[in-house]
Specification:
mainly alpha; 5 helices; about 0% strand
Length: about 140
């Protein structure tokens, strides 16, 4: 079954009492995603240290993570309209800023991972000696 044929699930919404759980989820995801971005930046300029499967997993994971980020955003908007206390409103606004950072981090990760496509170790090993030599010489010019 193709992705287009898979029906989208309806989002479950949670009461304001779940705000602390969402705070922890969003903060931990942002921290993890910043670590992932830092790791990918280390591979910049040497994408041959990655393989095709790793790059494909990163692209799939962070494309799906973008959908989860939208769910966070919708949940926060719903809580914003639910007459939260001043403290809850402040936390919701903080989390909205965190979600903005998550979206930017995901975009950066996806951009980097896409730039690695065709340059992984799998791609290097698939080239002939002549192709590798020509690439090396063209890089010298």
């Amino acid at each position: 079954m193709s992705d287009a044929a898979v029906p989208k699930r309806e989002q479950n919404f949670y009461p304001l009492s779940h705000l602390p759980m969402f705070s922890q989820l969003i903060d931990e995801q942002l921290e993890h995603d910043h670590e992932q971005l830092a790791s990918l930046r280390q591979a910049e300029g040497k994408p041959h240290i990655l393989d095709d499967a790793t790059v494909a997993r990163i692209l799939k994971l962070y494309t799906e993570s973008a959908e989860l980020t939208e769910c966070y955003r919708r949940q926060l908007q719903r809580w914003q309209q639910a007459q939260p206390t001043a403290r809850q409103r402040q936390e919701i606004e903080r989390l909205q800023a965190q979600v903005d950072q998550l979206e930017q981090c995901h975009a950066n990760i996806l951009t980097l991972a896409k730039s690695f496509e065709g340059k992984t170790i799998d791609q290097v090993l698939a080239k002939t000696d002549l192709e590798l030599a020509m690439e090396y010489l063209s890089d010298l010019l």
